[in-house]
């Protein structure tokens, strides 16, 4: 089977805040390499990462949480021989991994590494988490460092205890790493935009990795969060563009459709079905619309779907480059299926898709 065509020259780049660091607008989410929901072998992992590199992917995001170290190890094994090559790597801090024995499943990851997580957002905890990640990766650099899962979605009422520690000691550590040039940009990696908005009052952040909260199904962040990002010159990297599956698979012929890591409600299923009807009218793939939509916002620098098998590499490239007529987006707005204030991608008649700035 032939390798997918190189696409690195076709993927636009955007700058992260005021850092001077540029990232590809289409990135590679490495959570599936940590055996998210199902196990893949080391050989399968290598095949996926090699196919991604050959296809031109240069923006990779991983975390200690993904397989309790497994994703970082696999990602580092691929990138290590490529030292000196142009790639951008992000990982996350805030979880310390401690020996816990082997398990069939932990935190949604199948056959993870024999560790469990201990949250530590203190100055010392962030520094140790960063150093541990470098060792698991086997690399001497992480370009973007995110503080992971600081928010009520993860900690509930306990977040009232964690957040002040994170914004004082944790932020101090990350800012120090940035000033020393050990990382190029710092931010939060979370599933809720509210905590990012709150964090902007406590530090000078370069970017936020926001999973699922600015998507074809969710635009609440347009009200206050994204305007605040523009004011602070803070970039957003969108994870989970398919809202954990439903915008990739659609709802037709599906007995269960997953939305934000749980079975979708009847209301969400009905909404997606209506979007699919308009997709049919304009011959647009639902997943292509979901992948391209967030990038139209001026604060969004990149979108990073999780990719866990070789076939998804080429398919994602095709979705990213699929031409979507301007009328499609206007029809979604007219049907109240998309916020009327949301920026949308612009299709050029001569050059194909251009992401609106």
Automatic annotation (TrEMBL):
Molecular function (Gene Ontology), one example: D-threo-aldose 1-dehydrogenase activity
Annotated keywords: Oxidoreductase
GO CC list: cytosol
Domain NADP-dependent oxidoreductase: residue ranges: 26-335
Pfam assignment, any one: Aldo_ket_red
EC number: 1.1.1.122
UniProt name for this protein: D-threo-aldose 1-dehydrogenase
